[in-house]
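User: Beta-glucosidase 18-like. Structure?
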Amino acid sequence: MLRICEEGSEGVLRCKFGAGWPPSAAVGDFRRADGGGVLIGPLDDWNPTVLIESIVKTGSFRFHGARPVLRRMVVSVSLPVSAIVRVLPVHVAFGSTAAAAMLRFSSRARSLDPRAEEKSQRGMIGITMGFEWYEPLSNSSEDIAATHRARSFYDSWFLDPIILGRYPKEMVQILGSNLPELSMNDLSKLSYGLDFIGINHYSAVYIKDCLYSACEHGNSWSEGSYFRTTQRDGIYIGEPGEVDWQFVYPQGIEKVVMYLKDKFNNTPMFITENGFAGNSSSIEDALNDVRRVKYLHSNLNSLANAIRKGADVRGYFVWSLLDNFEWLDGYSIRFGLYYVNYTNLQRTPKLSATKYQELMYNFHIELETHTALK
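Assistant: Predicted structure:
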């Protein structure tokens, strides 16, 4: 998925989410500023090289828009392949090949911006990942090591090669030659790094070792040999949300940001998704979404702590403005600040729609005050 974000004259960053491509390919004259010469047709070849070139072409077209803006930002959104491997009955080689294709696309991303030579006008190139916070189930060295493996197999699989120029050591130790080799050309292009890291954050889990410890369930050896659990001694990691995978753990967003700050030399960050999933059966309960307001309030306070500690966080996007189709959950859950009637598409503001404006105003004032007192 490609996200195009534009900074308008008023300084507000606006994003067009879901500018996807395959199985379609863009063809035609990409020099036409009005886009009239560009056609979208079926993609007949799923070869990774063909896919990458189609993505780069489409992204290049997106950067040639007719409407002038102050800044454009291309965000490559990667669903961690380890998650795909867990959901689908596929071999680890598939996951490795798909991940390598994503990395090679990242190495080509700079060519998406036709103004790359003009640094003052250059667009921002970044990658957005899903970041759950992983907390060791215990203080044992095994569980701590398992937590590092979990991060390596879920997020660092992509970020380490792009920013540090190498695969995570935990993956190398376990997968070895099963990891696709990145050529010197790939590494050279990846060495440009990222202008920012996008963070999609919702929840947290505990991690238990399954490599050196007894473990009835958990990921396979090829996925890092660890077990995800939401409970320690029968107590949940946070207040259960309204869906089975989300727990209210507000300190998680601060911990994720500080972890990325310390590991990747404080690369600029955007919180590209953060929100509360609701599944209220009545419209009245859905509109009076007090739990969503509390979730956003606590997460923004936690994020403010990270910024006060020096984390270079450039922006925050709540997920989402409107109720919409949600991945595997479809229309069964709602994240929106506005309630959508899926029959007639009428939109009604929830409590969170009005409270969010107040929360962001207080968030801004709090950070301005902190800066003034430094």
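Residues 113 and 119 are 11 Å apart (CA to CA). Confidence is low (pLDDT under 50) at residues 16-40, 66-72, 80-94.
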